[in-house]
Amino acid sequence: MTLIIRSNREARAFDSASAPAPAPDVSLVSAGLKTQIDHIVVVAHTLEQGVAWCEATLGITPQPGGDHPQFGTHNRIFKIATPSFPLAYFEIIAIKKVATQAANTLANGQNKVKNEAQKSRWFDMDDAALQTAVAKEPRLVHFVVNTNDIQAGRTALKAVGIDRGAAVEASRPTRKGRLEWKITVRDDGQRLFNGALPSLIQWGKPGAEEPLRLHPRNTLPRSGVSLQSVAVTSPTPEKLQAAYDAIGLTGVTLSDGDPNITVTLKTPKGVVELQSLGI
Predict the structure, then answer these.
(1) Is the residue at 245 inside a domain?
(2) Are 23 and 31 a contacting pair, CB within 8 Å?
(3) 45 within domain boundaries
(4) Is 163 domain-assigned?
């Protein structure tokens, strides 16, 4: 039996519902926004578990990614881009375990608390229900969308009553240089809408002539896996559609139903569907 976990995250998303403030015209705020699927997020208990799952489920070995010190996580990645989803890649992410007990401290460790500015990990990775689920096997939990103006995207979501979180700066080294980006992360780390409200990401330094030069789409080899579709069901589809419209997101099928994200992939093992199942 599959347990569909319901939550009140939809209610939490609309922080201003009890005392709405005058909002700008969403169409004016989001004018010029270019938004598309950037990457799919699967959380694993450990990266070793995630790699083994990927090999067994999708038939490939994911590429090395990097560390995210401010969140105490690390990842493996691979390209899944298609003409319909030209920037798409796949991320398997896990909490990075520290080597010794002494390292697991507020002062020098990343396993329990990241830093004073960011208490909670991104993608709900500190959530007890999510941790319990991924202890059994890795789970699709979220997707991230690329935007050309992350601040405009945040403002557009606020105009429909949603706090997507601050635009947090992050980076990691690559063989071709330092990859830099900004991504929306709430102080509580919540994804909202059971993961179906995407995080916003903007790549590169402000004003960079080629902000996507080091994007994983441009640096990863072909993997043999390609993204076919992303479909979402939600018990509050009208609220979620308003959010998608605010940021100009298309290419995601949305319908009424129990909370779920379904990602369909063409792989060496055939067509594979991954589901979040409300986590």
Answers:
(1) yes
(2) no
(3) yes
(4) yes
**DSSP track, 103-130:** TSSTTT-SSS---SS--S-GGGTT-HHH
Report the range of poorest mean pLDDT among 36-50, 102-116, 125-139, 265-279: 102-116
Residue 213 contacts residue 87 (beta carbons within 8 Å): no
What SS3 class is residue 155? helix
Separation between Cα atoms, residue 211 and residue 218, nearest integer Å: 11
Whether residue 67 lies inside any domain: the answer is yes
Q: What is the pLDDT of residues 177-204, one digit of tens each?
A: 889 999 999 999 999 999 999 999 999 9
pLDDT of residue 72: 95
> Once rounded to an integer, what is the mean pLDDT over residues 36-63?
98
| Residue 64 domain boundaries | 25-275
Q: Which of 73-82, 104-113, 195-204 has the lowest mean pLDDT?
A: 104-113
Distance CA 277, CA 96 (A): 25
How many domains does one find in the chain?
Answer: 1
